Amino acid sequence: MTQLATGANSHYNALQTMAEKRLGHGLQAQVNYTWSHCIDTVSNGGFLPFSAGGILSPLPGDLQRDRGPCDYDVRHNITASYLYEIPLKMKGPLGKVFNG
């Protein structure tokens, strides 16, 4: 049996906001914004290729000196989307599928 323990830790903090507006005539829009910050000693446990060197600390047991932003830290993220309902009213079996 083999056991591998790095003693690493991660901290993630974020603020998320959302704005949604129904503009009328079947159109609505949404905007999301996230501010976040991730701090760790070894990203992804050191098992992925881009962080494999993080597990080989020259001073065993002292990972705190490697503490810093995560490899995947994204500070600002903004997304936007819209939805438009087609003003089409159908009758018959297709109307049951496509209307509303």
Give structural notes.
With 100 residues, this protein is mainly beta. The protein has one domain (10-98). The protein is built from one helix and four strands. Strands 1, 2, 3 and 4 form a four-stranded antiparallel beta sheet that branches. β1 (10-24) and β2 form a beta hairpin. The relative contact order is 0.24.
Distance between the termini: 59 Å
Report the order of strands and helices: EEEEH
Strands, count: 4
Q: Strand content of the residues, in percent?
A: 35-45%
**How many independent structural domains?**
1
What is the mean pLDDT?
A: 80
Major β-sheet profile: 4 strands, antiparallel
Shape: elongated
- Return the structural class: mainly beta
Count up the helices. 1
Quick summary:
This protein has one helix at residues 93-98, and strands at residues 10-24, 27-40, 68-69, 76-84.
Pick out its properties.
100 residues, mainly beta, 1 helix, 4 strands, elongated
Question: SSE layout and pairings?
Answer:
Blueprint: E1 10-24, E2 27-40, E3 68-69, E4 76-84, H1 93-98
